[in-house]
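Case study 2.
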Amino acid sequence: METIQRQKIVSVLVVIAVKALISMLHVNSIGPCGRGSGPCIPAEQWSRHVRAQDFPGSSPSASPSPLTVAHLVTADLFDSLFPARNFSFYTYVSFLTAAEAFPDFGTSGGLDSRKQEIAAFVAHIQYETSGLSFIEAGDQSTDYCDVIANASFTCFPGKKYFPRGPMQITWNYNYGSASDSVGTNILAEPELLASDAVLSFKTALWLWMSNSSNKPSCHAVMTGMWTPTSTDVAASRLAGFGTTTNILKGNEECGHESPEADSRTKLYLEAATALDVVPGEHLQCSTSLPF
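Prediction:
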């Protein structure tokens, strides 16, 4: 009798142990909705679930390196910077994952330089997407295919290169130029920018970090890595937020009074305040000649 009771107790303990193990496996395997069947966590909640373990700088109890973007832009700050964003697409984790692909972004120069660069980037993507509230252009009738001046980036049949992503990247030559840096042929599949948030943020950062033959990168301007030439000084192109607007928009918004450029500057000042950094000088581009 005593032996039978012991066997029953052992059986009960085994069942309890198995259930506990299954429960642990279930918790560890749960993921974001949209990745198969079974229990899931909505996208933004999943973002909050994983970001502390994936990006220590986002955890208030962690002590991350001050060089990380996650340290300067915490999860709560990201939410406050983009309160009206498309939460299911533009997640905090997708932003940090994309930033990891551009390790100099937000980590160059002194602390003020890092914060100013992030604030400037935030201001421009705020303006371009109304606070990350939309992913692609509403008007998709134009294909934005320049086959004459940019023969090296041949447009793919049936594809359109209208504005997409945080920086609203446009034209076949920009999609083509960005492809190598983001690791995906978005010239062939431009629609990926509307379905892959990490890729979408990467293209925005590619545009931010890239220079051309006659223009510095926005990154270089905001981190003190660019020194204006005498020609630049004569054209009122000086180190500061105003020159990033000039780089991105040229004579569309610079060299004259522009409410659009003024809105970008206002957003920059707001982002700088949120990041607790002085905005610096040369914030406008109304008197600057285009590059």
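The radius of gyration is 24 Å.
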